[in-house]
Amino acid sequence: MRLANRKLWILIERVADDYLRAVLKATPGDHGLVCSAESHLDAEAAFMKAANTTNKTLEQVGTALRGLY
Description:
By secondary structure, the chain is an all-alpha fold. The chain has helices at 2-13, 18-35, 40-66. The protein has one domain. It is built from three helices and no strands. The termini are far apart. 0% of the residues are buried.
């Protein structure tokens, strides 16, 4: 898990778009909130937020990738 996390951070640092890089750095923290929630309702709310953020982030990644070709 540590190695995968390290590789992820290395790839994130290579992203040229500053805003997208900042969003990508925040995404693992959003997912961590799901696991550390103190109640089922808190976990569900954190999951919904993380899922929404992830979808928006993936759309931005797609836009950045399409801009490369």
